[in-house]
Structures are given as structure tokens and as C-alpha cells.
From TrEMBL:
<dbReference type="InterPro" id="IPR044843">
    <property type="entry name" value="Trans_IPPS_bact-type"/>
</dbReference>
<keyword id="KW-0808">Transferase</keyword>
<dbReference type="GO" id="GO:0016117">
    <property type="term" value="P:carotenoid biosynthetic process"/>
</dbReference>
<dbReference type="GO" id="GO:0051996">
    <property type="term" value="F:squalene synthase [NAD(P)H] activity"/>
</dbReference>
<dbReference type="InterPro" id="IPR033904">
    <property type="entry name" value="Trans_IPPS_HH"/>
</dbReference>
<dbReference type="GO" id="GO:0004311">
    <property type="term" value="F:geranylgeranyl diphosphate synthase activity"/>
</dbReference>
<protein>
    <submittedName>
        <fullName>Phytoene synthase</fullName>
    </submittedName>
</protein>
<dbReference type="Pfam" id="PF00494">
    <property type="entry name" value="SQS_PSY"/>
</dbReference>
<dbReference type="InterPro" id="IPR019845">
    <property type="entry name" value="Squalene/phytoene_synthase_CS"/>
</dbReference>
<dbReference type="InterPro" id="IPR008949">
    <property type="entry name" value="Isoprenoid_synthase_dom_sf"/>
</dbReference>
<dbReference type="InterPro" id="IPR002060">
    <property type="entry name" value="Squ/phyt_synthse"/>
</dbReference>
Amino acid sequence: MDQSSLYTYSTYRCSKVITQLYSTSFSWGIRSFDARYRFPIYAIYAFVRYADEIVDTFQGCDKRSVIAAFRSETTQAIATGLSMNPVLQAFQDTVNRYRIDQRFIDAFFSSMECDLEQKRFDRQAYEAYIYGSAEVIGLMCLRVFCPDDGDFDRLSVPARRLGAAFQKVNFLRDFRSDFLDRDRVYFPGMSFETFGDAEKKAVEKEIAADFAAGLEGICKLPAGFRRGVYVAYVYYLALFKKLKRAPAVKVKAGRIRVPDTQKLVLLCKAVVNDRFKRYA
């Protein structure tokens, strides 16, 4: 391995550490991929995670300037094939190696920038936000898995629906913190104060449809990465079921989680189900 390759390899290792620190669920899912797919998916996760940190976590700074600088650095890294930011170096290598569409990256940044100012969403803004913040992440990962344009096009809709399901589950799980910490409510036409069981059921119906469409796509994926995607699906489905069992008042009272011990059990079940092609 030459020095240039060593540098890029080290940045992928950084992305792996970031993923492991931020998400147990996605880390376990990625470990279920064939080895050749793991580093690119770590790179995508670390990139979107850090961008999200800028708009949601850092206080007391000019977030608009910071996210604008990060976007500019991303564009430059992709164009030149080099960045001294480890996250951007791994991400640009993935983008260039797997021909990830610049439009996906632009849509992602548009949603991140939206988080800086928009607090309430109508249906059109909600769908645009979900596309940029979640669906394009599924499409980026799908491009890594499917270099062939025909396979990519055939599976792109299920990939988008699965990304949408994950994001909407996040919205439901984080309903309280989004409102109290950021004065933000994503669900269109709904408010924190009046959110009740009827509104929650409407959201759940939408999420269930997205999960069903996503699962149809998972069943068609090649074995090398199907299991990892299915593991992530199983984790989020378990969280969704737990949220469904909770009344709206409980969702508004605090964050509902799936314990790591249960995640480990779900991982084992997902591996067995994938082995015997029993998907549900």
C-alpha cells in the first residue's frame, strides 16, 4: 500500500469509528455486509452524521456559515479527489469510485439547510425534506451496491421508501426533543400540543406502507448486501412496533428506545431469517 492509499484507508477507518460511536444499530448492520461494501457505507454514514451534527447539535455558532463551508469543502473534495478532512476524504473517494450522483448530495444539503430555519412543514415541504435527508441516503448506498444502472433503477423506489420509513420513525421517536430543543415539528399539519392517538395512527399508517414497499426491495437484493440492509430494517421495525404500542402521550413524554440486548437478539434472528429467506 503506497502512502496515498494509506491515507485514504486511514480516513475510512475514521469513518468506521464515527459510525460505531454514533449508531450501534447501523454498525451491526454494516458488519453484516460483505467486506468490500463496509468502508463505503461507513463513509456515507459519517458524512451525513457530521452534517446533521452541524445543524442540530452545535450551539452558539453561525450554523449557516458552518454548513455552507462544509458544503463547499465537500464540493471541492469531490472535484479534486482530495481533502485533509478525514470524513470528506473517505466520502469523496466513495462518491468518485461509485459514481454517486451529485444531485443526491445537493438534495441532502438542501434538507440540512432547511433545518436551520424551517420549524413547521406542509405536505410538499415534508416530502422534499424526507427525500433530501433520508431517501437520497438510501440511493447513495444503493449506488455502492449496484454499479449497474439497470439494477439501480429497478431498486431505487424501494430504497427510497425504506429510507423514508427510517426517517419517519426517527421523527416519531424524537417528537419530544425536536419540539422542546428545536421548536420543530416535521409531521405536516400537526402540532405538539394537539398530537394525539388519531394523529399518531395516521403517521403509523404512512410508515407501515413505506416499510412494506422497502421490504419488497430487500427481498430482491443480492446476498452480499441484502443481509445488512435487512438487519437495519429489522431494528427499525422493532422500534416502530414499540412506538405503535405506546400511546401518543407516552411518545410526547420521552424517547422510546430498543435496548442493545434486544438489538443483539434481533440481529441473530435477522441472520437466521435471511439464511432461510424468511422475510417479514
